[in-house]
């Protein structure tokens, strides 16, 4: 019997922390050795999340964060802390050689100047741990699998970014769409806003309507989308990304609009390119012609549904991706990355089927 | 005391018929003289729609359609029948000089060839009443007010089309955006699919997810959007329109993406152009900078919320409109048109505030 | 033209305040002269509630509360402040002879000792204005119409209480059910919890589940239900009331379970008794046999749907009522009471049909 | 390596069939050998349920029902067919010695006369397979574990019945509540109505309201609740059961109201009795004082949350249970029963944590 790898979950009182517990507690290759949080320290997981009362044997109390304790016990740590808070924790853990999967945005952008342009605030004028930036691997296995196998610090992608990149990158890489002028219109369930109540996610306000927010290229997932699509294009590019809040708990649907490099291709060429790019991928389903992604079909699973269509009338391309924002868009993807860097089978512990209806 | 104009509602068993009853029963300038339907004939309105049990005094039985009876009693008729069915009814009523507001798609497209390209089916190879097409006025008061004042046949716009045109047309008319390559990403509540149950609107399937449908330029509201935007542009154009089904009952949010004709304009120029275009409009609110349209804020009202933003980073324009698909997107707009052609005050009977939360 | 009565709305930043503005701004007998609030003072109504931007001409700024200013301008004031806060405001207004409709719980319980048992807290060990208690009339027109006609202080009932009392009281008054052992199982939309965000009404937590809360007779609407049903019974009684939070914005459905005083009655006797009790009532619909109350059919309207069934197998009675918690359960009912005390037609300004679907 | 038991799923196109596939495809002790359906035969599971495209290796076509083929291949069959249809299938399978878990109502009632009173229709005047009735074991492990270990035909309980019995039966068995006059007020998500679209589950009609249905003791889960509670009581009894449709996909919350046999007990005695009864139960969580069942906390899991409170003021008892109607209320419970009769560990394959939020 192989020893299970001891892992720590830091930031257990939010939704991505809860999803890490849900997934890792059933993962045959690891053992949740430590559950830590700031405010929730002292409570049990089952107090904070009743649905997880039976996840960790004995439902032990949540501990306060202590990097030395993590290093003494766990080989891998997941940080589900907010951006800004996470960087210091990651630095402390890396200093003690703990492998870290960071679900915050702190290590997603390779260029600290770009980080500063989007994230600098009163507390952090500059990136708190810039020397770690070049160690971090962007945790999208479909694009960085080789680097992830030897990574020690993984920057788990944003939920919107995951959906947008999965839909767009292969079409750019294959030279099928023009990398300029790409529009991404994305829709998210309310869990993407986190567990802190706010007017925007108050059920009476949010439950029976839809609205865009952070329009005009102001959402912080924009630069990571651009970074990854620029990699695919081999040159800089910018995208117009518009997020929406939809009256549901989970799910992201991203629509990517682009111009083809050659309007004369077969109408199915774009979908076929996705199928080629994702052949053999354990978690990306390229849907057959006539079927369309639906967030209801990936709820709770690590799978992404993608497709692309070419509109003969306008000569434009639409690529679509659906994911669960908390799984493939966060905690599931983090586990997928962990499997890669630990040399475990990539899909291990991630075979949950979607919960439908 | 002026006499109330007698009106007939035909097709009272669907949602747009119900909304006509809701609005017209409280309209001080008209009197619901006749309520007709096919399948529901013999039942009372309150049987078919319990919330309307008190709308029409005495809640009389719904009558089967009879054009002679309509002509004998009503000066104005609203047809809320499905497209295809509606054209014959409209023709019969127009032959008897009844003023008709048709909520179906049958008279929205001026060119019968375009109609045939989108609507021809086994029952109707060609438009059933082509001679009436040039009499019909497209019922969007914000663009056809003058013609509507003397109209006898109004083709009430589609719900998606209303939202998309309200957001885009003034920017095209003002020469601010390039009329080619416009992308419209629109999201609708489930009432847009009508009252007939279907798998796509079955609560367990639709209630906790979002998905696009009829992608790739196949939705039938596309040609009417193109017709109206072409009017604004002074030349032909094509748009890529993608509809989505959102887990809510009412509301449409349309996002229009376009390239500016001059990328050097002030960032607020696009919103300002909407404000200029809609100055004095009784039902269009151009939101101040920093506020964004939300379908929850127009539920049950005839108001549209619109805005536009310029994304400095990509040099693209986003215009957004939110409406209630059954009110400004259907029955409310029909009443607004009726007010115009009857010479009544345009907002009469349409001052319902949105129901929020 | 009769002069419109000037009214003040105090506490305009919550949902019941907003509903008062929605209703009163369209009421032909009154004029919203003053809109006041604590935190929201200085903002406009349209800033706080975008759907009301056009409700009050000119959308003037919200004023801070000032009883002298109210007395100088308005004949009637509505207090939509939280309980505890409201009593002082009401006292100040009554001292200046302003007619007050108080939507809080502060004047609903006639007995200050009972008030203290349910509402006393660190700030208020005893009722803040006990001398006003005997002036207050419980604002349920179906039970206190005569007293309301001459009232100067109306305690508008709680939302749950309205539904429960409408279903149960006539059956008790008629001697058809045993006043002891009554169980009330009620379900509410999230707007009943008010506009302040909280974990319990955070969309991801509340949007896809149902749960009871404040079980075991701890919800504060219990004593007002008991007070009114005791009136109907002519003696003291106690009820077991269980509230639930349902994933929707508006609506209360109350199921009342009771034992019949005579199990041998006709099965339709209970429904028939409701029909007799509510004959002529402008806002209570006793549904015909075979139809059942549905909160979706009263959304946005001041109507209540009620019915009762007798279960032959167990010999128990079930009475059901559906209302909109913010209209008949709060602001609509307040306006209905105002109409009575001002001598206006009781349904004036309250003819809004429900918004369905 | 032990051989996996080959199982057949019959009726794979409905929600309970889908949940059987979701659960059994991840069950280490069995192998889905056959998937059968009537209408859906010829399609693949992934066509009928996209979220299950990867559940069964190769996603083979669904076969038409053929009892000989089942007997030749599978040791165990699950029938997820509608009642009435299921009995014949079950009889054919039992004739060939296939172990059957029937999710329909056909074998839940031990007395064919009671069956006839509730289920007889034009097609079936009497029970289609009465001789099998005494072989069938009611599949509620918490009450019939010993019999289930040797069962060959299991009648899997109804979803409402599961919740109601779990809440009430231990209190009756322990002599704590009076078996007469029990009221069960239960609330269900729309998936309980099955996958066929209908007006009652059309999103615009059902999505933003709550309503009772089949009131007055007419719902067919009533007699199975009575049968099981009568067992607990040791004598006949009748319950008043009222189901409700809630705007969500999954979940049942059942509130059971009863009189205590001794009003003088400690307030926590009822909850404590549940804790005693369910000590060691793998799937029933008796919540600590102060916490209440929430269907959102059991979505997708086989767990039930239960509690009970005593209302000192009225002297009445309220017991509450929350389950996922498709898991503990149907397919999960079926698998739990299968584990018992196959001698597998009872929780095997059922350790899915709830999906929250």
- Tally the helices of chain A: 11
- The first-to-last residue Cα distance of chain A is 37 Å
Order of helices and strands of chain A: EHEHHEHEHEHEHEHEHEEHEEEH
Task: Going across the biggest sheet of chain A, name each strand in turn.
Answer: 8-9-7-10-13-12-11
Using the CA coordinates, give the radius of gyration of chain A.
Answer: 20 Å
Shape of chain A: globular
Number of strands of chain A: 13
Assembly context of the chains? homotetramer
Tell me the major beta sheet of chain A.
7 strands, mixed
Portion in strands of chain A: 15-25%
Largest interface: A-B, 52 and 52 residues
Regions of chain A with pLDDT < 50 over 5+ consecutive residues?
A: none
Mean pLDDT of chain A: 97
Classification by helices and strands of chain A:
alpha/beta
Question: Could you estimate the helical fraction of the residues of chain A in percent?
Answer: 25-40%
């Amino acid at each position: 019997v192989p020893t299970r790898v001891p892992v720590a979950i830091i930031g257990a009182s939010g939704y991505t922390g809860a999803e890490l517990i849900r997934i890792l507690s059933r993962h045959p290759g690891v053992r949740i050795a430590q559950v830590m949080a700031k405010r929730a320290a002292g409570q049990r997981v089952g107090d904070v999340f009743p649905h997880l009362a039976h996840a960790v044997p004995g439902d032990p109390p949540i501990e306060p964060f202590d990097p030395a304790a993590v290093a003494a016990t766990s080989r891998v740590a997941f940080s589900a802390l907010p951006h800004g808070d996470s960087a210091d924790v990651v630095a402390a853990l890396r200093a003690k050689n703990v492998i870290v999967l960071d679900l915050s945005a702190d290590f997603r952008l390779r260029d600290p100047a770009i980080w500063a342009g989007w994230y600098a605030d009163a507390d952090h004028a500059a990136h708190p741990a810039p020397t770690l930036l070049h160690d971090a691997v962007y945790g999208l296995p479909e694009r960085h699998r080789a680097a992830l196998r030897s990574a020690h610090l993984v920057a788990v992608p944003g939920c919107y970014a995951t959906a947008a990149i999965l839909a767009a990158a292969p079409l750019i890489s294959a030279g099928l769409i023009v990398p300029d002028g790409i529009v991404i219109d994305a829709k998210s369930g309310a869990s993407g806003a986190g567990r802190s109540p706010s007017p925007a996610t108050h059920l009476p306000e949010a439950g029976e309507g839809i609205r865009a927010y952070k329009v005009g290229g102001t959402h912080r997932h924009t630069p990571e989308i651009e970074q990854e699509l620029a990699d695919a294009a081999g040159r800089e590019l910018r995208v117009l990304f518009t997020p929406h809040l939809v009256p549901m708990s989970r799910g992201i649907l991203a629509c990517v609009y682009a111009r083809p490099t050659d309007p004369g291709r077969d109408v199915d060429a774009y979908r076929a390119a996705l199928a080629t790019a994702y052949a053999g991928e354990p978690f990306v389903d390229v849907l057959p012609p006539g079927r369309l992604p639906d967030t209801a079909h990936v709820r709770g699973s690590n799978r992404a549904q993608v497709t692309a269509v070419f509109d003969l009338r306008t000569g434009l391309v639409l690529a679509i991706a659906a994911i669960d924002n908390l799984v493939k868009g966060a905690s599931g993807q983090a586990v997928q990355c962990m499997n890669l860097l630990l040399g475990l089978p990539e899909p291990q512990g991630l075979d949950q089927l979607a919960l439908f209806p």
